[in-house]
Fold these 3 entries.
Entry 1:
Amino acid sequence: MKKKRKKKPIKVIVISFIILLFASILLFIASAFVCAFKDLKQEDILKQEITNFISQDLATGNFEVEIKTKGDYAYIERAVKNHFKNLSENVKSVNDYNDKLSSYLEPEKLQMDRPNYKAAHNMVNNTKIKIKKTMDNIKDLCKEEKIKNLLDKNKIDDYKYYYDFYIQLIYTKEDQEMFQNTAKKVEKTSKYMNEYLEKIDQLLYYLEEIDKQIQYTKEHVYFETEEALQKYKNFLIELDNITEKINSKNNIEEAKIDSV
């Protein structure tokens, strides 16, 4: 005789299903909580990284890019850091040009370049072109349109969320003022540097004009007449005055962004 198999009560099956469903819900909630926690942690890391990075002096700070976040946060971090690295490199270039200006008038170089000082004139003209290009780059990097369009919406999943987060992070009222002030300082610095270069050109033409009255040594320039010497000194005084304006604390080398 065959034994009849006992059927499992429907009640047991239902309870098991409810337990599994409840466990799945708990697992889902836990996963969501972990993801949210990780996102908040990534946001905190990004905020701190950007705060430290952009609060440096543009002319002296270390703007080497090192990414500390992941995912879409890493994309934002890289975009911001690369932008400020580019801005800093251009600011430092301006200061490099400034440091090299006085070298055009070293007696030893002038002696080798006399009587028409062609090499010095060419350096002056080339420097004017380089300064203009650098200044244009800085002004472009400070434009509102440029800053607001650093992020590519095709490279971020939730573009609106991350874009709003990015704007709050990098384009506060203080940041806007900083960018505007930097652009104004660039204009002022550019004006003074071009004045300096124009004055060097004028001095070179003067030296060419009185070449027969000049004797050079490795470190000094000698003139046959007091009048020629005095005019040369006046040029140097004017150049020193322009240099003071270029190096003023109100100019570009002091440009800084306030902390987020």
Entry 2:
Amino acid sequence: MRPAMLRLITFTSLAVLSACVTPRSIGFGYTAQPLGKGGAEVGVALGALYQAEAQPPTSGTNANGQPTTEQITANGWSAPHFEGNAQVGINSSLGLNVHFSAAGVQPGLKWTLAHNKNVSLAVVPQFGVGFFSHRSATLVSGVDGRERETAPVTTQVLLFQPGAKVIFSHRSGFYAGIGYDLISMRRTQVSTIGSDTNGTLQTVNAVSTSVGHQLGAAIGVSAEAGPLLLKPELAVIAIPSFDTTYTRDTVSVPSSGGFAFAIFPSLTIAVRHVSKSSRYVDGEDEAEEEVELPLERPVRKKEAVPE
């Protein structure tokens, strides 16, 4: 095999491999405590992300007509990894929450179902959407010493992520949550193969649609540090399997299997303003406003007059 062709196969494989890891929304970064009407909190999570993913296996045949099975896998660490969260209180138990991550934007409503000076319990229904585009190519040196771009591959991903979280928090600062998201993804890939010198150049369009069920959990602690809130947190997500349909040109092939897993240890740094309409702040009762009552005038009893 010629060295140029060997480089072509190697770099094309790496391009496909790097494109198969899908960005995920993993962290929480907030507690169940309500902010009250007009309250607000904004935070950024910084940490390291480990992610592993395996695409569903696909069946085919090789050049000799023998059956083959292929499965693309990828894993690794990335640091630093960022996620963000912002929320605004609407009333004493309802707030608008927006989460930002590599998977896109996830707006939702935070509804505190139970709240007293010791514990809080909230549910957060949300809907996420994200779009990503990636292009790769191979530079091959010819006999004239000039480098030419070959085998360009353009990948675009559209991601929808409806789901919900349930969060419990304690006055000590401890909080924990679980979540579920329905991951619906459409991946479009346009690649050019062959050579224009011998007339074999052609464009291949491939589309894959997949659906997966993402389960997530997180534990953390929220502590005040001057005007800031510090929240060390450990979050994990897992997708046990995918239902995927591959379409290349006019041929569609369904496939099931694969998995995805990610772990995200992080530290969230946040600033917060809690409205006075919130009944409890950091687990303490708010001071009740003193109201002066008017002094009652003494009532003189009339003495009975003897007849």
Entry 3:
Amino acid sequence: MTMMSIASVLGIFISRRFREPYFLLALIWALYGIYSKWHGTINNSIAKTTLIELLVLVVLFFVFRFNLRMPKLSIMKKR
């Protein structure tokens, strides 16, 4: 589980630094393979951890790919 987390953090860094969100697709593919292998076995904690990391990477892929940002609040506008 530690190696999966390190790979995810490095993947996020590389995708952000080099502006290549498609790098995350390789990690998503690998994590899906790990999840499908461990889902429904005794070591279900591995599957749960992998699923959480998988969902985070999918969300970040769309954020990096489409440059999604938080909207600015109009309440803070000066008049």
